[in-house]
Amino acid sequence: PETIVIGTGTAGLVKIDEEIQQFTREKGIKLIIDKSEEAVKTFNVICQESEEEEGEQNKIIGLFHLTC
Known about the structure:
The chain is built from two helices and three strands. The model has no long low-confidence stretch (mean pLDDT about 90).
């Protein structure tokens, strides 16, 4: 993927390990980490914007923790 968006729960309690962040940097993958509500909005905006550009969607993954 070009981008990974991670939602860390309603209160943002989920922690993303530094190894994951380092791995994505090394691979040139943009990593976006935010509370889940904002992460979902960001994911949707990126998807919509990429469709509007030349009709192609960027490769994006969304991972959303929905409880805490």
